[in-house]
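User: I'm writing a tutorial on reading structure tokens. Could you give me a worked example: one chain, its sequence, then its tokens, then a sentence or two explaining what the tokens reveal?
Assistant: Sure. Here is the example chain.
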Amino acid sequence: MTDNQRIAKEVLEAIGGRENIASFAHCATRLRIMVHDKDQINQEKVENIDKVKGAFFNSGQFQIIFGTGTVNRIFEEVKNLGIESSSKEEVKREGKKQGNAFQRAIRTFGDVFVPIIPVLVATGLFMGLRGLLTQDEILSWFGLTPKDISPNFLLYTQVLTDTAFAFLPALVAWSAFRVFGGSPVLGIVLGLMLVNPALPNAYAVAEGTQKSLTMFGFIPVVGYQGSVLPAFFIGLIGAKFEKALRKRVPEALDLILTPFITLAVMITLGLFAIGPIFHSLEEWVLTGTTAVLNLPYGIAGLLIGFFHQIIVVTGVHHIFNFLEIQLLEKYGSNPFNAIITAAMAAQGAACLAVGLKTKNKKLKALALPSSFSAFLGITEPAIFGVNLRFMKPFIMGLIGGAVGGFLASLFGLKGTGMAVTVIPGTLLYLNNQLFLYILVNVVAMAVSFTLTWLFGYKDEPIESKANNETKESATENNKTEEQVDKATNALTLLEVPAPIKGNVLKLEEVPDPVFAQKQMGEGVAIQPSEGKVYAPFDSSVGYLAETKHAIFLEHESGAQLLIHVGIDTVNLKGKGFTSHIKTGDKVKAGQLIMEFDLDVIEQAGLSSITPVIIPSGVPAVKEVLCKENETDGSVISVQLA
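And here are its predicted structure tokens:
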């Protein structure tokens, strides 16, 4: 068994087996899996698998980061285990349950463009290499001048750099038919029809060397070389039209009539309606994008550099693929790439600062490889594994990204391609821009690293930092030995009723390494069946988070209990949560102290699993057990060291 086969098998086991997979696919860097039951996923086990750079839920998908190249091999090995990768109806059904309408639309948009990005990346690299080989300085090393370059060689490089964009509608229509359930070969033919040499060439019409055709006296018809939206919507509508036809055409005639009618109807709509309408929309979008990128004084870079990684966190950043493709097709260059590269490098530097500053071995082991991944253009491990976890490093990374983006915009940096960034991205700037590209990224990294080191991260014990949702947690360390004994005696005899009704899970099953690895302390987790939290014993409210998702209750002995409703629910900023208490209040056992809306949590693509924790420190917890209670469901039995 090869390493990749073993890894594929381990992935399958860690996410709950093949029965738990609704659908799975991959993008440039990660496996994207929709599961039937998120609770069956062992997050910690996934993250400990070889070659896994990180794993997290986003936009309803469980995403496992392997990195460019590796993910393709793991994907193939998972398929070899008998898992179907293209169950479109299941993808559609699961997608309807996950995220809001906008997130679902962007995810679908991304599903169309992700498969064609590799050829566009290759095209961009060819452009960069051609720019390098035709530079006067490089040619002088070999005693040559631009006049010495063979016209045939230039023609060869033109084939390499121009083909993908010349036939881009065929690629887009093929992918759209595939995503929306049609026959991909029909998409290819329709896309090729849009760029048929019999039609006036779009580039020639734009240059004024050819005129568009006029149909019916008022409809302009041209080829759609380099266009994206017309091909996308022809693919979308065409796939649905083909599926509708197949339900109505007799089986005996299906092979002949369905493709005939689909092609005839869709190319007519494409040339006379869909094409003109969406090409005009495409031009407006491109004009608006160009106007933003051309804002004076580096303003565009400042704004994009700051906000880009925030958009990445929301999971809707695939919309930028369309914009970058349009920039490359229209202008042959991509100023967006340089700006977002600075933003990504800055997040990597913030993560590096945390990794170098911390003395915690687990955090260091996570942060240092994650920062290196960011410098290779994969920021998710750094963002989700480290920076967002402590928040301030993420903010310092945003500031560094804004500074770097500002400089990239001021210098007018423009990549020759897309989808490769930071260190690999140097290949897109070999045309006399390399020094400025390196300078921009070094400045972004230096600003982010320095700010994080000085202000963005304080090296505290992980449990204290993770407990940063409470301002009073540090007082645990100041307890006297008498208080420790008192707390120990009290909790040893205490059976804590579960504060929330639902199924009790092991803490290791929580999809958050901070809880699953017990960095905050021992405890259990509960999959809620209703959105109500009750006080498990007479206590005072030591702390209520501003976002209302986390409560610390303090027993009269001084022992504390953390109730953390959901995973990453801090991002809801209090939406869906109603608190009936405040910090400092006294509460009685069984008192309703909080309500939360399970639908709001699920619609945000978050887990409602609720860790119930005895924080690490004093008293020391040896074991936390669960047992069934006939009246209330479950209780937590605490055994102290």
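What the tokens reveal: The chain has four domains: 3-97, 167-290, 296-462, 470-640. DSSP finds 24 helices and 19 strands in the chain.
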